[in-house]
Design goal:
The chain is built from 14 helices and no strands. The chain is mostly helical. It has a single domain, classed as MetI-like fold (Orthogonal Bundle). Helix 8 crosses helix 9.
Length: 363
């Protein structure tokens, strides 16, 4: 054995002896804690959902441009109202609204401006589209927001009570009534309420006004009461149709929890039945309902086109109906994008929040 290899052998033997005697072992790759791995998994999950939402928003932007150009009719001729207009005047209007440009150029201009929040000028109102949406948005939020709060609380409460008393007369009555209302078209129910409670029928006098948001002749607190009076029938229509879905989802979720072991344990501890339902069963059954609530919250911004049209409510739904009748392409495209974006963003928010409520999601 050469003298040069002797030090290396001595060092190797010393390393083996040190390891065998419990000395410091060679440092391996750093390991991450379970908490950091969970955080990284959640961030990847949230990033995927946000990326999917961005793709969906772009798809909506493209769809909103091409979809409404399939509607038959010429916007320029519709705006002339059947009056005699020269060919030069029609051509000038087309140049004013950019309808004389090739379709691909209209599309690129529309996408470029939309990304900056500029959706163009309304054909019929001759005003910026974003201003018209801003004017109608508060009325929609007032109507649909009020209905959202009422039918959410009512649906959760009745759904929980029906499931807890599954098979009882109250459960069968609530479920049958909810299914009946859920299958009724909202515009038909609205017309029925107008006939019975606004116009009056037989001995029933007209109790509630329709046609707008307010009478226009009141101020101060009287104006608040006047608006609330006008809201009664459209809110009843929205609540009657929408509360049923919340009730059915809540009832189904709670029925799935009824046979769980933790409820048996809670009862064995001597807890009252109502306390077991409120403190243990309902919070766990709320998870599927949370997703539905976010979906409903997205449609709150979108408004209720049929209900607002039937009751002449000056919101986004009524504005969409007016724009569609022309067709007012910049306005109808922007409203479609706003409606779809609200639903997409609320669904994405629900997906991002859901793992915080249930850690099993997103792993």
């Amino acid at each position: 054995m050469s003298s040069e290899s002797t030090p290396a052998l001595v060092k190797g033997a010393a390393g083996v002896e040190s390891t065998a005697s419990g000395g410091p072992a060679p440092a391996g790759p750093p390991t991450r804690s379970p908490r950091s791995r969970s955080t990284a998994a959640y961030l990847r999950y949230a990033a995927g959902k946000l990326a999917g939402a961005a793709v969906s928003l772009f798809a909506v932007l493209v769809t909103s441009f091409f979809l409404f150009r399939l509607i038959p009719g010429d916007p320029v001729k519709q705006m002339t109202g059947g009056r005699q207009v020269s060919t030069e005047q029609i051509a000038a209007m087309r140049r004013e609204f950019g309808l004389d440009l090739p379709l691909w150029q209209q599309f690129t201009q529309y996408c470029g401006k939309a990304l900056t929040g500029d959706f163009g000028t309304s054909y019929q109102f001759r005003a910026p589209v974003i201003d018209k949406i801003g004017e109608a948005l508060p009325a929609t939020l007032l109507l649909t927001g009020t209905a959202f709060v009422i039918y959410t609380l009512l649906g959760i409460w009745l759904g929980a009570r029906s499931a807890w008393r599954n098979g009882s007369a109250g459960d069968r009555t609530n479920t049958a009534f909810a299914l009946t209302l859920y299958s009724v078209p909202s515009f038909w129910l609205g017309l029925l309420l107008i006939i019975t409670l606004s116009v009056g029928i037989g001995p029933i006098p007209g109790l509630f006004p329709t046609g707008g948001m307010e009478s226009g002749s009141t101020t101060g607190f009287d104006r608040v009461l006047d608006i609330a009076h006008h809201m009664v029938l459209p809110v009843i229509t929205l609540v009657a149709v929408e509360y049923a879905r919340t009730l059915l989802v809540m009832r189904s979720s709670l029925l799935d929890e009824m046979g769980s072991d933790y409820l048996t344990t809670a009862r064995a501890k001597g807890l009252r039945d109502d306390l077991v339902r409120r403190k243990h069963a309902v919070p766990n059954a709320m998870l599927p309902t949370v997703t539905l609530l976010f979906v409903n919250l997205g449609t709150t911004v979108a408004g209720a086109i049929l209900v607002e049209t039937v009751f002449s409510w000056p919101g986004l739904g009524g504005l969409f109906y007016q724009a569609l009748s022309v067709p007012d392409l910049p306005l109808v495209q922007a409203l479609f994008f706003v409606f779809a974006s609200a639903v997409i963003l609320m669904n994405t928010l629900a997906d991002v929040i859901y793992p915080l409520l249930d850690p099993r999601v997103g792993r």
